[in-house]
Structures are given as structure tokens and as C-alpha cells.
């Protein structure tokens, strides 16, 4: 039996924060990418059913959200 203590490396808080921020950014990019991909379908449904004419502000908001999501999610590459 060995009396040697297991070696533990000190936790670098800057590295931990960097990894956490990177993973959060990846999640935000992925969510924005898929929202930008799917939201136009909902907009088309709203246009076909006439809901868009009843709520033009909601249509404008959906189009603005789609534009923002396209910009934020453009760097996301879905893994196969």
C-alpha cells in the first residue's frame, strides 16, 4: 500500500470561466441557428392562415427575431 497522496492540480478560475463561457456561447449559437431555421415556417403558416394580418406587430417581431437569430447563429455548424 502506498502512502503517496494523490496529486491534484489547482483549479485555474480563468480557465474555468473561459470553458464555461465557451460552452454557453456554443449553446446560444446552436439555439439561434435552429430558431432561424425553423421560424420562417411559423411565419409562413401565419401568413397562409391570416393570423399575420390580425397581429402585424407579432409578424414584425418574428421577422426581427429571425434576422437576429440568423446573425447570432451563422457560425454554428451542426455536427453530423
Please explain how this structure is put together:
The chain has 80 residues and is mostly helical. It has three helices and no strands. The protein has a domain at 32-80.
Order of helices and strands: HHH
Query: How much is the average pLDDT?
Result: 89
Q: Determine the number of helices (DSSP H or I, runs of at least 4 residues).
A: 3
Number of strands: 0
**Straight-line N-to-C gap:** 47 Å
Query: In percent, how much strand structure appears in the residues?
Result: under 5%
What's the main sheet like?
none
Structure, briefly:
With 80 residues, the protein is an all-alpha fold. The chain has helices spanning 13-49, 51-54, 56-73. The chain is built from three helices and no strands.
Secondary-structure topology with pairs:
Blueprint: H1 13-49, H2 51-54, H3 56-73
Helix pairs in contact: 1-3
Features:
single chain; 80 residues; mainly alpha; 74% helix; 0% strand; rod-shaped
